[in-house]
Amino acid sequence: MSDSRRLRIAVQKSGRLSKDSIELLKAIGIKLNIRDRLLIAHSTNEDIDLLRVRDDDIPGLVMDGVVDMGFIGENELEEKMLERAAAGKPAEYEVLRRMDYGGCRLSIAVPNEMAYDGVNTLQNKKVATTYPYLLERYFKEQNVNAKAVMLTGSVEVAPRAGVADAICDLVSTGATLEANGLVEKDVIFRSKAVLIKRAGDFTDEKAQLIDRLVPRIDGVMQAKE
Ligand code: PRT
Ligand code: ZN
């Protein structure tokens, strides 16, 4: 099973960040034996184990020190950090590198027919989102009294379903918004994937391994530019 002497890295099991994260690890010379159904994948040439989980779990695994590092979207990381800080749980981490993949924005979008004149238009309205902490922080900064309604999926159908007046969701091409009769209005957060490291001490072996890996990541990213 897992061995605490080995560096543990959390990656999304299957989703938008999985392929790029695994390809990066392979590109920096880590040989991986990934079997689809298994939570853990062991490297055959480095003292590294991968933990393959849902992206939602990655910030907490790093902040609780269960894994040493993780690849995660900044949107998810920042949301979980705010959620944990509000609950008085440890929310520390260090960003080692910002990656060149996973780019998206968290935006407020409203139905085509809504007359929208800035975020004040949402005063006393309901906004469906998977990111209530980020959205409420934005409302607070903008002095808008609106309510974030938490939905873990199908956010884009909330206005049509009568669940909310507007939404705040991740956007990359904008095709999903358009298909649902929504218009993007305010970008509240811009995100990319990042590689993060837990707080606290590392053994010399792990610290040296991290010091060897990070420059290789820089090399791979520079070669792509
Ligand atoms: O199962 P698990 O919980 O691990 O995965 P998930 O479904 O929560 O996440 P996943 O794989 O969808 O996204 C993982 C991360 O990818 C997000 O947290 C973001 O950091 C990043 N990312 C980049 C995106 C997008 N681009 C994106 N377009 N995440 C979601 N989307 C959604 C968007 O909201 C829309 O519904 O993809 C759909 C298509 O977007 P458009 O704008 O191109 O139509
Ligand atoms: Zn998720």
UniProtKB/TrEMBL annotation:
The chain holds residues 1 to 225 of 299 of the full protein. Residues 54-218 form the ATP phosphoribosyltransferase catalytic domain. Its EC number is 2.4.2.17. Belongs to the ATP phosphoribosyltransferase family. Long subfamily. This is ATP phosphoribosyltransferase. It comes from Salinimonas sediminis. It is found in: Cytoplasm. Keywords: Amino-acid biosynthesis, ATP-binding, Cytoplasm, Glycosyltransferase, Histidine biosynthesis, Magnesium, Metal-binding, Nucleotide-binding, Transferase. Its cofactor is Mg(2+).
